[in-house]
Amino acid sequence: MHRNAPRTVRLLACAAVALPVLLAAGCSSDSGDGGKDSDSTSPSASKGAPTKAAPARFKKLPDSCKSVAKGTIKDLVPKTDNASGKRVGSGDTNDSNSCLWSGLDKYDYRQLTVSLKRFDSDTSLGSGDKRAQQYLDQQAGETLSDKDNKKTKQDSVDDVGEQATGISYEVRKKDSKGKAEDFTGERLVGRTANAVVTVDYEGAGFEDGKTPKLGDLKKKARKAANEVISHIS
């Protein structure tokens, strides 16, 4: 009994110490295994360091107003007042920028908007490519969920960038005088690496004009999107 007294005293002393001190001091039995077990279950040993996202491919964006040829603008937006386009929004154009064209040819109205957005890689948010893909889905979802849009239809697009989708729709709009007009439109969203281009192209036939056919809008929206993507480098 006297020979076991020192061991008993040590165990009681350790039990009286607060938990943080126990972990730091590594109180244990005479076997000496305690320190080894605590090392193997530490958070740093099991989880490891955060995985670094792959670097983004594109570091800047082209000017959307200069990314569509003037011949294409003439075809898509006849009689436009400004073939060079109108800048939309502000901020760092290397991260995002948009351009707008509109024109009225007799009673045929057309409007084209081209928007570009770029994503950097982020350890907590993911790679630039992944973030761009999420934004593409978001852009498509906005058009599909808009309650004003009727007869929406989404189609996959295999000839624009690395990934693309198109959404066609019909919508009734009122002008400043409260007169309603029927529009048809196409939103095409395409991605190449960490950059996304969104093309919104719609039109109406005022008075005796005819509402544009969706097939024509789709074809021309794809043409514009491919021209823009060719300028991304």
Automatic annotation (TrEMBL):
The record's listing under PROSITE patterns reads: PROKAR_LIPOPROTEIN (PS51257)
Q: Where is this region: Disordered?
A: 29-60, 139-165
Q: Where is this chain compositionally biased, Basic and acidic residues type?
A: 144-156
Is Hydrolase among the key words of this record? no
The protein's UniProt keywords, in alphabetical order, are:
Signal
Where is the secretion signal located?
1-24
Top-level lineage group: Bacteria
Q: What is this protein called?
A: DUF3558 domain-containing protein
Instruction: Tell me what organism the protein belongs to.
Output: Streptomyces boncukensis
